[in-house]
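Example for tutorial group B:
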């Protein structure tokens, strides 16, 4: 019998495999954040329930998004935070 899929189980599995990110729930989707995923442009998995995916599928989604974001950063040649701020029209003093 497969283990019950919970946020804690997914986050524990990510940590066990040496990844430094957390999965969180939002309204109608889930997203990865912190450390490894902090600068990602695309970090969402569009499923309503955590049980929609198995534990291995959640880790697979994390790896897919990690690869996708690395490709995005390689294509732009800029770090994600700079890319995310490119359209920011605030004064330079307030922008990070």
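The residue assignment follows.
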């Amino acid at each position: 019998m497969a283990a019950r899929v919970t946020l804690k189980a997914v986050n524990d599995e990510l940590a066990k495999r040496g990844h430094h990110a957390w999965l969180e729930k939002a309204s109608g989707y889930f997203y990865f954040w912190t450390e490894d995923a902090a600068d990602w442009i695309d970090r969402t998995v569009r499923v309503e329930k955590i049980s929609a995916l198995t534990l291995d599928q959640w880790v697979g989604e994390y790896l897919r998004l990690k690869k996708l974001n690395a490709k995005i950063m390689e294509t732009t040649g800029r770090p994600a935070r700079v890319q995310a701020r490119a359209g920011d029209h605030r004064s330079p003093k307030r922008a990070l």
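Strands lie at 22-26, 29-33, 44-45. Compare this with the pattern of hydrophobic and polar residues in the output above.
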